[in-house]
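Handout, page 2. Input:
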Amino acid sequence: MLRCTLLWCPISDLSSGVPVQLLFMFVELVVGIWTNSLGLISDAGHMFFDNASLFIGLYASYMSKWRKDDVFTYGCVARSA
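Output:
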């Protein structure tokens, strides 16, 4: 994992973007509720599903590092999102 953080690694790029997008999502939701803006609330809902897809991609990247076993003799390298 240290080698992956010192060099370019898509998992680290993906995991660093998720908290920023979650922060913006919650800010949009709170400001949208406070100002009664349906546009901001709906955009926060859209960002929620964007975050869900980022989590799925992050988990797929994590799964691709799994070693082979008795069931998956090739490992989980073929898994992708």
